[in-house]
Amino acid sequence: MAMPERDSGIRCGFTASSLIIQKLNATEILVPTQLWSSETNNESMLMKVSQGTADICGGVLRIMHSRVQKLDYAMSIWPFHVGFTYLAERESSNNMFVAPFTTSVWLCCSLIFAILLGAQKITAKTMLVHAYYTSAIVSALMSTGRSGPDSLRALGDSRYEIASEDYDYMRYLMFDVQTNWEDLEYLKRKKMNAKFYQNIQTGVKMIRDGQVAYHTEFNQLYPHLSSFTDDQLCKLQFIDTVPERVNIYDIAPVLVLTLMAVVLSLIILLIEYSVAKFTKQRKKESEE
């Protein structure tokens, strides 16, 4: 195989299921399926296992709440991480090494440097100028940031076209069905067309041309990026289809519980203090 990493997910799932079969001392019988996770086709791997016509999935199925009620999972063995990849054009920074100082400041610095060079001395002032200059350069490098869309909605409003690798779970969980992801639905209305599904080789070429944001699993895409130049790799940007970042709404219950625990601890502390003070007062009165 020219690129063995291409089907690493399939091999990972098959190897894991084979190890389970070996541990159980069972007989391995392969049952072919047409699809992976479709629930509208009885020929999918998910439906065969959930209906009992097969015992173990030979591939990897993302752990989802709706599936836990139909399938038993041994463990999570594959990092599902999908999204769009595109080639961004960063703003020109050719003059960033000159920008921190004006022409007059550069002339003064050159004069000071010439004098100090002649005297072979370095003073604290020159170190201060150097510190300012280097911090300005770092700030300029960081401020260039990404010069393209950073969300699905922003991608929908951008100049980029979109395309996707053709996996059944992408069709039946994301693009060929109505979802409750507002940003994804916005992107689909704005950008999807008849040529949306493309194989990964074509998708990589689209990314390199700089006009298309291509959707696939990142860990499937990375081996293909070895053909990119260093400049192209530096310009690559990624947008998660399913954001993995934690927001305030995800941790709100934990924050509420923590706040309640703090309040409760203060109440208990106040009660303990009051009881101790009352006990001490009663003891003092009894001694008198």
From TrEMBL:
Entry-linked SUPFAM superfamilies: Periplasmic binding protein-like II (SSF53850)
Keywords from the UniProt entry: Cell membrane, Glycoprotein, Membrane, Receptor, Transmembrane, Transmembrane helix
Primary location class: membrane
Regions that span the bilayer: 100-119, 251-275
InterPro entries for the chain: Insect_Ionotropic_Sensory_Rcpt
Subcellular localization, as worded in the UniProt entry: Cell membrane
Recorded topology in the membrane: Multi-pass membrane protein
GO CC, alphabetical: plasma membrane
PANTHER family membership: IONOTROPIC RECEPTOR 20A-RELATED, IONOTROPIC RECEPTOR 40A-RELATED
Protein name (record): Ionotropic glutamate receptor C-terminal domain-containing protein
Species: Leptidea sinapis
